[in-house]
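Re-run requested by the PI after the first attempt was lost when the workstation crashed. Everything re-entered from the original request form. Ligand of interest: 2-acetamido-2-deoxy-beta-D-glucopyranose.
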Amino acid sequence: MAVCSALAALAAALLLLLCGGGAEARVLLSLDDFGAVGDGIANDTQAFLDAWTAACSSGEQAVVAVPAGKAYRIWPVQLSGPCKKKLKLLISGAIVAPASPDEWAGRDPMKWLYIYGVDGLSVSGGGTIDGMGQQWWASTCKLKKTPPCYSGPRPKTVHFEECRGVSVQGVTLQNGQQFHLTFTRCSDVKASFLRVMAPADSPNTDGVHLNDSSHVRITDNLISTGDDCISMVGNCSDVRVKDISCGPGHGISIGSLGKNRTTDMVENVRVDTCLLTNTTNGVRIKTWQGGMGFARDLRFESILMKNTQAVEVRKVGFTDIRGTSATAQAISIACSDTVPCRELELKNVNLTREGGGQATAFCYRASGKTAGAVVPPSCLSK
Ligand SMILES: *[C@@H]1O[C@H](CO)[C@@H](O)[C@H](O)[C@H]1NC(C)=O
Ligand SMILES: *[C@@H]1O[C@H](CO)[C@@H](O)[C@H](O)[C@H]1NC(C)=O
Ligand SMILES: *[C@@H]1O[C@H](CO)[C@@H](O)[C@H](O)[C@H]1NC(C)=O
Ligand SMILES: *[C@@H]1O[C@H](CO)[C@@H](O)[C@H](O)[C@H]1NC(C)=O
Ligand SMILES: *[C@@H]1O[C@H](CO)[C@@H](O)[C@H](O)[C@H]1NC(C)=O
Ligand SMILES: *[C@@H]1O[C@H](CO)[C@@H](O)[C@H](O)[C@H]1NC(C)=O
């Protein structure tokens, strides 16, 4: 007896070790356990919601699996947090939307997979999320040439609102009704190893969209859609965009900021190592006159553009910038031959050379005005 229980205890200890050094136990839930059919036709919405509820209330870390080789048709849903423990959605099969906009009758037309208030959710698995946006696009006034046409809101395909510690990695998002992956009022977010695909003429099908979010890493993605590969509005800060293949599409954009006289503060955004191919724009910063706030500490580095129509920088103000520059050229505004930078404003700038001495400013095809003291003297043409 004593020997037996000692052996059992040893076996349990070994199992724990094998399962990751005493890590927490996990539960694996499959949509099929909740009665999902997965034939691409049946309504698997309730099964999906039930699996979410079970996983979210589980006292152990849960993995909700969407099995490979199957397609689950899901009507608009809200998945709400907070959950008891961290959660994983392992999407290896496909989640598909109803094709007809009529299915949204009586529902919020801006939502399909809407995830609210989660903390610690990862989405992965190599599968596909398909917004089936074709009928939505065809009805829009952008594409439909004969009346009546639709100019109202369309569902954001996957929308996280009020989230923390969310990662979406290694899945395909395709044919979004509108933006593919949106984060609103989120922090500590990762969007990596994604394929985001929609036709070049599909309207407003941005790849990854950020609104009022911070500490975001968007890396290692291939994004080919009908609008911006990556866009951000509102109060976004500490955003790193790196190693992105973008195009066709509109490029990477910050803004529009300050629309309708709002205050938008975009800060500390670094975009580097992006290959933009066949995009209508390169990197853009768009702001509105009359708006307040700022776009500051934005860095764009190592951007390679192929067959990109223009780089547009417009209505950007650089205000209250002071400090020292490591290089003699403290201000460099180099714009495109085809679309020069316009309506720039330098206001209260005082940049000197690190270690002392005068700095210089360089402008190419950039026009605008200055206000207050500007050191080194502005090079903007009128
Ligand atoms: C599919 O199931 C969900 C959840 O039960 C329900 O809200 C929706 O109306 C169903 N769709 C159809 C077309 O029956
Ligand atoms: C950003 O989010 C706010 C709500 O927090 C919303 O009112 C606004 O329309 C959003 N902006 C965009 C461009 O989606
Ligand atoms: C940005 O922050 C300002 C000031 O806190 C606020 O007035 C504004 O509504 C915010 N904008 C967005 C889009 O969240
Ligand atoms: C901006 O304000 C105008 C009226 O002042 C309104 O019609 C429009 O919907 C507003 N746009 C946004 C994006 O809030
Ligand atoms: C870019 O456009 C050219 C000509 O319009 C086309 O041949 C090429 O396949 C496109 N490349 C991509 C990656 O879409
Ligand atoms: C700019 O900064 C330097 C060093 O801090 C200072 O000496 C100088 O007076 C400043 N110039 C203006 C116009 O503020």
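Saved to the shared folder this time. Residues 2-18 form the longest helix (17 residues).
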